[in-house]
Amino acid sequence: MEPTVPSAGEHCRVLIFVRQFGYRSPTTFNRLFERLQRVQCLQVSDNPKRVIVANFVSSLNSGLVKFGELQAHRRVIGLIGIVHSPPQTDEQAASTSQDDGTVPQVIISEPEENNTLRKHSSSKSSLSSTLTLPQVKQQYESTKAEYSSTLVDSRCITIGYSNDALSDLWSSRELLSFGCLEEADSMENGIREFLRSIFFVLESRRLDLSFEKLETPPCPCLPDEQRYRMGLENKTSKQYKRKCVGRLRKQVADYTLLTGLPTLALDAYQASIDLLKQAGDLLWLAAHINYDA
Q: Per the domain annotation, does 99 fall within a domain?
């Protein structure tokens, strides 16, 4: 079971959601997940030495994810979809040789008693196994849309499908396709490129300080924060601008930590703390406690 509360080490790790779509193959998923864990660290610079660390998870705590504005390590920054073709009988293999993009239903002859025992437990898996590839792609896109506000990049790993069936659904950049798990030798390189693309986006956000020159910078807020605010704020005041810039600097500090610059991140956090103290923003000051402890 995954921990419900992030540990201290997770503050510098980029959250990557790994999810299986279509036919469920626990064995394949677990083996792929283990391989992903082996490439969770990627050195992106030699001087200074910088390492981006991925936090691959197979389930999410929605109660924590929604606070991504406050702490960047809670954001779903990357998505990896895993799509495995279902097993086929000889007759099914012959009937689908034309490759119309349909994921065939699993039909395996079993004794009647076994069918009765497994009927309830396998009903969900059976429904998933009858999905067509376009339907699987729709599930994948739906998940991307769910986390679109924080998602930076995504990849889809497919096992057991022909490239012709996949080319019209996924772009070559987003797709990592393999005939079988044993042929997935280049998967690690594909994931490294995936992490590198995420790094460049986060790095650009770290370097973007244009908000400091704005007269009315945007103000990051937590879900329902406005509902519990006492009184009205003067959005033209210097105190409100300090609050906005202080919160935005906090986010820049988070990106600095995620992109492998812990020393600079401490300086960025201190700059944010100074502004938040001047603005009396106790809520976002509390978020710094996790980093200072």
A: no
